[in-house]
Write a structure and sequence with these properties.
Arc Repressor Mutant, subunit A; mainly alpha; homodimer; DNA-binding
DNA sequence: ATTATTGTAGACTAGATTAGTCAACAATAA
DNA sequence: TTATTGTTGACTAATCTAGTCTACAATAAT
């Protein structure tokens, strides 16, 4: 069960943005360069974050993107939900109606516990936490 | 992040086996029929379980498969590891060497926490637990 | 010994998904 | 007006998933 590169790159991009937004809008071009992601691909990663309202953007000269909320208000569970979708490892966890046995299926209970465990881990960490941890380590940089 | 059908079907097959093995070897044909899985596909699901030694088999008439250990000795983390592979959502969690920044990457720490959370959930449940839960519910049947 | 029955192994394939690229467009500041 | 920046969606190559198909190996019943 692997996260997509979309999620990994998107998370890195968001952390990069959080770190570099002090001086105003950050250009996608610069994030792409720092994170070694192609600009065209990065655009697709950022789109869902903008649509969801956790990132804002402006076009044209001096344009760029910035966080719509402070880093401590952005939890990773929101981020991963936008980039990757639900943490439910099986569809029936979120949509019991797709399987007639959902109400009594014992494996479904396990899949549900897995989802909750992931949600809990991700909800316990904010972008600010990642920034702090990165500052704590000398040359810590997200590369996953 | 979704589990493959291989894992979902394999888990169901194993639970089916645990429930039906009282009267000796269970034939793949019968598991396939009860669980609505094609026989040829089921064979592939069972192979890794046999190779890992948690299921044993015999060919020919009166052949079939059975659990090599008691259901309470078979934890779900073993099962999912065999069917799905590691719970690491990113490769670098298991193999830090593939990325030069693994030692200082702040997102890797999160991916590592996710893996641990999944491992903990799955290690806390055995096949016997699933059997007990199924017996507790009236017509509970695994269908995921 | 022969045969029907069962599991084993691996090549193969269709379809879905992922990880992107490319081109045209829209908005803004200089 | 123009250069610069983000937006959108079509498109594609490569990979992965979910299987099927064929030949084979071992065993029990006859």
């Amino acid at each position: 069960m692997k996260l997509s590169t979309k999620t990994r790159y998107g998370t890195r991009a968001l952390l990069d943005l959080a770190i570099n937004q002090e001086k105003g809008p950050v250009q996608l071009k610069d994030i792409a360069q720092r994170q070694s992601i192609s600009l065209t691909y990065l655009e697709h990663l950022v789109t869902p974050l903008i649509n969801a309202g956790i990132v804002r953007s402006a076009r044209g000269r001096k344009g760029g993107i910035w966080l719509a909320k402070s880093p401590q208000e952005i939890r990773l569970d929101e981020v991963i939900l936008l980039l990757e979708g639900s943490n439910a490892p099986v569809e029936c966890v979120d949509r019991p109606d797709i399987c007639p046995r959902s109400g009594s299926c014992v494996t479904r209970d396990i899949w549900t516990e897995m989802k909750k465990a992931l949600d809990d881990v991700l909800a316990a960490t904010t972008l600010q936490d990642l920034m702090d941890r990165q500052n704590a380590g000398t040359q810590a940089v997200a590369r996953s």
